[in-house]
Amino acid sequence: MSVRSFKIIKQGSVPFDCFEPVDSKLMALKNLAGLGCGSTVTYIESDAKILVDTGFDFDNTLTDENVKENRKRLTHALKLQGLKPSDIDILFITHWHVDHFGNYKMFRNSTIMTSEAALSRVKIKVTGVQDGEKIADGVRVIHTPGHTRHHASVIFNTDRLRRSIHTDSGGRILGVGEVTVAAAGDAVLTPAFYATETTWSQNKDFTSIDDAITSMKKLTTEADYIIPGHGDIFKNVRKTTNPA
After folding, report:
1. CATH code of the region 5-235
2. pTM of the model
């Protein structure tokens, strides 16, 4: 079975891309420019309505005001798709960094799922998912440790991927047939990290370079398109069987 549709409802930004120095002043400048460095949020509609990550911006500022602003942004992003938080059946958290899970309290009626490896760390009620486990029609979870020990990604199949490409002269629709898409979380941080085959290792709970590279290869072996943890969907040109 294939998913009915999917949509990036909030595109994340990143504090430092692979070609940038890790520098607190640069981070401050990005924040001043309005880049909150929250994660990308993906909505998947199958026999269940699924949200992958929650896109919490400015995660270094956990004030009541910032929490309210984040809830407002995500509520608006859902509303644009005709959805409310209560409509989401499954909230899947790829890993437990605030920029990916910070808005989870909005989804009190949802089943929160995550890698079974994270269960000992998470203090709220969640459902652990095994590597390769199917969570809805056309949707399964793949464990992708490296960025963290408990990291997991979502793989789903679609019978048709149609995207609107905006140009100065208007828009055009690309149809590329049946595809497999990975909502990678930070197993693939950005398109630039993918292009340079590098991994983000600055977080304190980073596991290992070897694990991170192995996990990235799992995704690039299988997926036709990748939704990174921070950024927009892109074609996986490393997969030799990509559709034309």
Report:
1. 3.60.15.10
2. 0.91
